[in-house]
Fold:
Amino acid sequence: MADIKFDPESSDFDYKTAHAYQMQPKKKNGHWGSVAPTSDDERMANDLPENSYVVLKGKQHETFDKAEAAEKARGSKIEKRGSRYYSVPMSKGGTASSRADGCAIRGKTRA
Structure:
């Protein structure tokens, strides 16, 4: 089976990256989180500040607008860097370490 690469312009969801970070859907409603952590290499390659996250939903995903609203509410904005969309803190002093969507990562829920 061929490894299908995620298209950030599509209506798809990047399950491969979500699984790599041991993310899981919420038990209550099955919702997957919209963002995942970025690696040091990814931040360096895309000139991303600390507390940036990779967006797991494609730009045409039916709830991409909800992801944008959630990221804005926690002081970040979604922007394209390189070939992917990222959630980037709006200010240098802003902290975007808390997750707005509360999805599980590595067995812990970040609120």
Remarks:
- The chain has a mean pLDDT of 83.
- The radius of gyration is 13 Å.
- The longest helix spans residues 64-73.
- The beta strands are 35-37, 53-55, 76-81, 84-89, 104-105, 108-109.
